[in-house]
Amino acid sequence: MRIHPSLFVLLAAGLSLPAVAQTTLSASTTTATSTSSTTTTTATSALVTVKGAVVGAPETVNFSGQAKVNANVVTDPDFGTQPTVVLSIDMSGVSGVGASTGKKYVVSSQETMNRRLNAADLVQVTFPFYQSGASLSTARIGAASFSLGYNVGTLKLTGASGQIGTP
């Protein structure tokens, strides 16, 4: 899988991604106060259009759809460490079509991980997929790559793009 180099230049410079019709962002911020400190959690979600192909036997599968990316950025006022992003990627809105048979393939995968907040982040995950109606034991593995951009001042996800490929 390859991500276009100019995307990383934009993200590394702290710039948000250009507006793209296939990515929809929404955000909210909450504050929780205890007797010793105040923690801020900023939640941003994006619907990211992804597409690509997984090549392999018994056939190449062409995928398209929308992945839901949720980024909850949590501050740490007690120790002053870099904020943590609790990142959730839901691939259930993505499906595939067999290149030679035309059969439908489904994805039912959700990944959750903790990452340090940076202006630019490249996240790679694998996901199981299988022919619609078939047993989960027949699942194959695909890979998804997401380029994420954050405004580290506001703690918000400002852009996201993704693609699918062969692991």
Write the layout of secondary structure elements.
Layout: H1 5-12, E1 23-33, E2 38-54, E3 61-74, E4 84-90, E5 94-98, E6 104-107, E7 110-116, E8 120-131, E9 140-151, E10 156-165
Antiparallel strand pairs: 1-2, 2-3, 3-4, 3-5, 4-7, 5-6, 6-8, 8-9, 9-10
* Helix percentage range: under 10%
Number of strands: 10
- Rg measurement, Å: 18 Å
pLDDT averaged residue by residue: 84
Q: Helix- and strand-based class?
A: mainly beta
The number of domains is 1
Count helical runs: 1
Apparent shape: elongated
* Main sheet properties: 10 strands, antiparallel
Q: Span between N and C termini? A: 8 Å
Pick out the low-confidence regions. 1-21
Task: Bin the strand percentage.
Answer: over 45%
Oligomer: single chain
Write the element-wise H/E pattern from the N-terminal end onward: HEEEEEEEEEE
Q: Tags for this entry?
A:
167 residues; 10-stranded antiparallel beta sheet; 1 helix; 10 strands; mainly beta
